[in-house]
Please model this.
Amino acid sequence: MGDVLLQDLWFHQVDGVLIERVVVEGELVVVRARVSAERAGCPACGAVSSRVHSRYVRRLADGAVGGRPVVIELQVRRFRCRQRACSQATFAEQVNGLTFRHGRRSAGLQAVLERLAVMLAGRAGARLTHALAAGVSRSTLLRLIRRLPDPEIHTPRVLGVDDFALRKGHNYGTILVDIETRQPVDLLSDRTTATVARWLAEHPGVEVICRDRSVAYAEAGRLGAPDAVHVADRWHIWKNLAEAVEKAVVQHRALLREPENTDRVRAVAPLLTGELNAGSGPGPRQSGRLSDRVREQHAAVHALLEKGVGLRAVADRLGLARNTVRRLAHADTADELLIGRWTGSTSILDPYKPHLHQRWAEGCTVARRLFEELRERGYPGGESVVKKYVQRLREAFPHDDPPRKNPSVRDVTGWLTRHPDSLDDDQTQRLKEILARCPELARTAEHVRAFAELMNNRQGQHLGQWIERVQADDLPALHSFVNGLGQDLDAVVAGLSLRYSSGAVEGHNNKIKMLKRQMFGRANFDLLRKRVLLTARGRL
Model:
């Protein structure tokens, strides 16, 4: 049978709808129903009418049942409006919670799809709708987002302002966040002074503006909300200070290197040459497998030669190559053949051993690095020769403690700008040694610690005194930082005194990046704005 009767629900009333029959047609569940109300209200003038103009059947997609898509075949009526002055002569009746004008889906399914669209956008949302047996295309979901009404924009008392990238390096927008509720208020299509100032003028009531050190946003706040207090974000202030400290460290980077242990060099270098050459002088070895074989072959060759045997015949008898027999015959003694075979005088590394000994005494024990240094000095040999010699050095003169790597500019900058309690013992000791070698960095560290205490304790009223102490010191990098503070001094003092910050704004900025990646190339500004505002305001 094509139609399978699931259940007879003759004239069963559900919220003003009479469900007449539920049947299965293939993989589709069909619910046939009709509206039971006797009259309906005109959507234009609100007049209630019972004069039926005509009837027709609407097919509405609904949520799946048992993994099967559901279609509601709803018989509705078209009424005549009783008000002659009404612009709408006829109108179709609507069922609250089930239908809406021009809709081909039930109100419940429409709400579900809108939530999916806001959460997952196009492709991901479309895949999920097909899994739920209510499949729609990604373009349909994007249209649903665009049709959603804009959320009501309220004016916050404390406003956070920051920019975000629509296309990094090309187009930027502005995000406005209510710092007290930590919810986004609005998104603007650019970050120009005029746009932000216009928004502030159209939404009066902003008392505090939290922002970064941007000149454009500072000017927009003065134009659009002249009475508002500007608060410079503490994270950006500290970032500017860290950049100034890095410049100071770069100026004195020569003093960051660990000083060489000259006493060790003077003590170890002579021992290296003496110890490694011990037992390998110009004299030949007196024992060993190779030396014994050479001596035996030399004696046998000369014994046959004394008997008048020719070189070819000697080679045949002893099973040796003719050239080998010739070398043995021309040597008066076997020692002539053995000299230089095990001594350092024949090594290609000999001219470069003094440099190896010097670097080893200084603490450089990495064979690869030593090989690269020798190659820069013209060494023509391979790396394996250097590795074997370094292994001999390692066995003869092991280093008790591995050499410490010289700290980089970033390392020292981090040590100077981090809380002292977050440094381990080695970092603390190395920083202490660097500050002892460089008085300028030591004074910089004192100023940084003083500024950190001022910021952590929110003592912005003492900023002027700190600036005077820095200006009285000969530290050009910090002078540049102080000059920058002077250009926005009131906002900096407020940022170091008040409890407000732009942390919530930065968090939403990261969320925008996630939404952009999720929408790939379809992240137009209108879609992005709807998703950011609707997601944050509980429309999910």
In short: The first strand starts at residue 3 and ends at 14. The first helix runs from residue 107 to 120. The chain has a mean pLDDT of 82. The domain at 158-233+501-536 is CATH 3.30.420.10 (Nucleotidyltransferase; domain 5).
